Amino acid sequence: VTAEIVSVGTELLLGQIEDTNATAAARVLAEAGVTCQRRQTVGDNLDRLTEAVRQALSRADLVLTIGGLGPTEDDLTREAIAAALEVPLETDDELLARLQESVQARGVPWVHSLARQALRPTGSRVLPNAIGTAVGFICEKGRKAVTALPGPPREFSAMLDEHVRPYLATRGGGVRIVSRVLRVAGMGESLMEEKVRPLLGSGNPTLAPLAKSGEAHLRITARGEDEITIRHLLDDMEGEVRARLGDVVYGVDEETLEACVLSLLRDRKVTLATAESCTGGLLGGRLTSVPGSSDVYLGGYVTYSNEMKLRALGVAERLLREHGAASEECARAMAEGARRATGADWAVSVTGIAGPTGGTPEKPVGLVFVGLADEAASVATQHRFGGDREAVRHRSTQAALALLRKAVLSGGCGSS
Ligand code: AMP
Ligand code: MG
Description:
This protein is an alpha/beta fold.
């Protein structure tokens, strides 16, 4: 079974809103094992909308339209679907009565245009809307079908789950598609791809690399008749990937790097502090965004100026003079200083040049040092990040978390 999505609304074409409904619909289609082959976005124009639905119907078994079901003149999806399917529109009397009732109950005057919301293609089935006034419908003709849902996201999602999902289950032929994402940090995307290349040709499940800021993901997608088959396919591929990549795979699906690092530290009953220069608190922000982080994360320093590095962390003036703040030496001294000042078991630091200004030939924009200290030793790593200021800052926090994770896994700073 194949499907296409048609999103309706000039506001989408103007870039005023994001098409979150289409994203939700695409996900539901995938989960139901329906192959979504194309998405279109059209404005509130009857000819173009009719054409879009007609074309979609000529290619796919199923067309999902989003939006344009309101009472106003620019809500034209009903008309377009009727025209594309070549079935007449008729007033649903029961629906009309209910609309009139609800308008009366709200104490607002009845305007004639409201009756448009009671129009449906002949032979269609109503999809009730538990939240709003615009109902949806499913209209079947031969082997083809069109579903129409209203645009307000809360109503759309509820109706997608309540009506479209079960409908797809009756048409999808029992095949389901499920994805699992493996998250990788501390290894570049190219190297990761290189290592899993033999697996990329697999048909079921498929494996797809996705580059993210400061990390890389591998999406495994399996297709099968039942949950157990699908889970086995996913588990086997995950095992293959992990065997090739080792412990740079830090998490699955929605697990974040900061949450994974904190739980590693928690398991070992140790504490953490931070010292940040160019990230200005971003790293501490990420750590404290994880609920329950307080049993591991003690706190940190934002030492932006050299003066602050010296005063708050005890970084030696001579060190700063000889090596500068963006240096391996300073990163280590910052981490050591944060450990000393907080009494934490581990401290991680970030210092570098986020840009766009402040770079020199010796120390260009994007040059970042991450430092790490535990009771036995301190280390630092050097990075050259591309991208704008925000990208450099985010990647710096990724690198800091990845280095910390690696050191904790290998048993200490000295052994990493
Ligand atoms: P409509 O059903 O076209 O009258 O849309 C009603 C409202 O739903 C719009 O004003 C948007 O705020 C929202 N909306 C419509 N289409 C979408 C969409 N594809 N994704 C997210 N929101 C939408
Ligand atoms: Mg609209």
